[in-house]
Amino acid sequence: MRTYHPMQIFIEKVLLMSYFVDIDIAKYKHDCFIQNHNSKVMHNSFTFKNNQTGFKEFLSVLNFLDHSQKIKIRPESTSHYGSNLKQFLEVNNYDYMEFNPHLIKIFF
Fold it and tell me: Closest by alpha carbon to 37, among 65, 18, 56, 53?
């Protein structure tokens, strides 16, 4: 009989049935890529503008995802360029977790 460590069970719950929405933040535009927990591409890379019109386009893409699964939005931490997007996500009830690309490079 296989035993599971509590942390392993937690990680499996978090990762199973999830979409990963990775966003590369820039001054005028953001690049996005969406995959599921099995690394299957759910939406090819696309770009949206760093303004209200672009955010609405991004939201329309998110609306096509199955909301019974977790949607993990992961914008990179890039100065203040992502501030408007983060506020937009909060207003539209989406959680996000920023990541620092420099730290990821160090560890991977």
Answer: 18
| Ramachandran region, residue 107 (left: φ > 0; alpha: ψ -120 to 50; beta: rest) | alpha
Strand bridging mode 18-25 / 70-75: parallel
Instruction: Give the tokens for residue 12.
Output: 């499996």
Residue 74's closest CA among 26, 37, 19, 28?
19
Predicted confidence (pLDDT) per residue in 28-79, tens digit: 999 999 999 999 999 999 999 999 999 999 999 999 999 999 999 999 887 7
List pLDDT tens digits, range 18-33. 999 999 999 999 999 9
- CA dist 10 and 51 (Å) reads 36
CB 20 within 8 A of CB 39: no
Place of tokens 């392993």: 8
